[in-house]
């Protein structure tokens, strides 16, 4: 029973993972985390009932929640790396360590709690209620606004008078990319990919920076090459460094 329900949970989690990765640039991770909290609580509630159906549902929901939280953790730290000077590998490593530290604590506490239940000191319902309480308290203590989930709104500084305004330096490469993008009708996302290609960035770097899938980046690059009438990144760099539109 356990293997079958775990398999079902993993299939549901795989579908959820695919949707989350494909639409990761448009998904509010904070909202996804709040929604995934619901099956987590129901999974804990099901453990309090002594029935085959409740156990099966608990295993299934647990598999979905664990896989979903792993994906959210990775995407969270990828976004956080874009706003800090830390590498994606470093931050994702911290997130994975934190995730599996909780798993380790659960495995260590499991036999101890099982022994207490068998001795009649406590029961499954009490353990489930305690876990739900711990989850609720941890949710209340967690910050509700984080720069890695949503963009921070910076205060608008007082603008200087026209006579005091200082000229803003414009990056020639950015100006050139903007002109080419406008002339060839690149979309907003294609402009972002194009700007990185024009700086010689590789496709894996673009995937990590813009949080896009491999196929999505490949599609954008293909469309950019077609619109600019080039066939390689080197031809694109030559076009950017030239004068023609």
How would you summarize the topology of this molecule?
Blueprint: H1 2-22, H2 29-46, H3 52-82, H4 88-119, H5 124-141, H6 172-183, H7 188-198, H8 203-210, H9 214-228, H10 233-241
Helix pairs in contact: 1-3, 2-3, 3-4, 6-7, 7-9
Describe the structure.
With 245 residues, this protein is mainly alpha-helical. It has 2 domains: 1-141, no CATH class; 172-241, Arc Repressor Mutant, subunit A, CATH 1.10.10.10. Helix content is 71%, strand content 0%. The chain is built from 10 helices and no strands. The chain has helices at 2-22, 29-46, 52-82, 88-119, 124-141, 172-183, 188-198, 203-210, 214-228, 233-241. The N and C termini lie far apart (64 Å).
Low-confidence stretches: 148-157
* Shape type: elongated
Give the number of domains: 2
Residue share in helices? over 70%
- The tally of strands reads 0
Radius of gyration: 25 Å
**What distance lies between the first and last C-alpha atoms, to the nearest angstrom?**
64 Å
SSE arrangement, N to C: HHHHHHHHHH
- Alpha-beta content class: mainly alpha
Largest β sheet strand count, sense and barrel closure: none
Quaternary form: single chain
Strand content bin: under 5%
Mean pLDDT: 77
**Number of H- or I-type helical stretches:** 10
